[in-house]
Amino acid sequence: MSDPPVGTVRNCKEPSGQLWTFGIEWERVRGRYEPVQIQVRSKPAPISASALRRLPLGEIIAKARRDLRLTGVQIERSATDELKRKRKEHVVEFGPHRGVPVSYDELVKAAKAYREAYPNGGVTAAVAKACRVSSSTAGKRIMAARKAGLLNGIGRQS
Fold first, then answer.
1. What Rg, from alpha-carbon coordinates, does the chain have?
2. What is the pLDDT of residues 98-118, one digit of tens each?
3. Is 75 left (phi over 0), alpha (psi -120 to 50) or beta?
4. How many CB atoms within 10 Å of residue 3?
5. What is the model's pLDDT at position 71?
6. Cβ distance 5 to 25 under 8 Å?
7. pLDDT tens digits for range 33-74
8. In the predicted model, is pLDDT for residue 5 greater than 60?
């Protein structure tokens, strides 16, 4: 069941004396009230395309959103805010790293490719090809394999 639409009215007066009245209808979209309809009235001059382009609609909607909050209409955090909150919780629990953790078997595969390619050079490219990853990821896997002790005695830290 959807929430009933909520309406706000904003008035805006230009220095020329022209008065604009905006009726804004809000509906809940993905958990947040968003403007879904704007009705514009102009007095005393008629509405023209150039006059409409001059209107600061973004500011008017932002002020109307603040008015909604002041009247007690709960405007929930956006889905983006919720994702940010979940991401922070994830970082606290698991650390800042992204992606899938590398298994020990994957490190062994990287170390094997490194050892085979070491005499001829091009170790990063060889690891990237063997593990089917980018050269950047291959470099990180080489560091992880070295840290795990799988490359002792070979390479620049031998």
1. 30
2. 566 788 899 999 999 999 999
3. beta
4. 10
5. 60
6. yes
7. 788 888 888 887 788 888 788 788 888 888 888 777 656 555
8. no
Q: Which residue matches tokens 């309406």?
A: 7
What lies within 8 Å, CB to CB, of 49 at 6+ separation is none
pLDDT confidence of residue 77: 47
CA gap 65, 74 in Å, rounded = 10
What is the rounded distance in angstroms from the CA atom of residue 158 to the CA atom of residue 145?
Answer: 14
Q: What is the DSSP string of 43-103?
A: ESSPP-HHHHHHS-HHHHHHHHHHHHHHTT---PPPHHHHHHHHHHHHHHHH-S--SPPPP
pTM (two decimals): 0.40
Q: For the purposes of burial, counting CB atoms within 10 Å of the CB of 140, is it exposed (0-12), middle (13-18) or buried (19 or more)?
A: middle
- If we measure between CA atoms, which residue out of 21, 6, 3, 2 comes closest to residue 72? 6
Cα–Cα distances (Å) from 148 to 47, 88, 108, 131, in that order, read 72, 28, 10, 17
pLDDT of residue 95: 57
> What is the spatial distance between Cα 8 and Cα 27, in angstroms, rounded to a whole number?
12
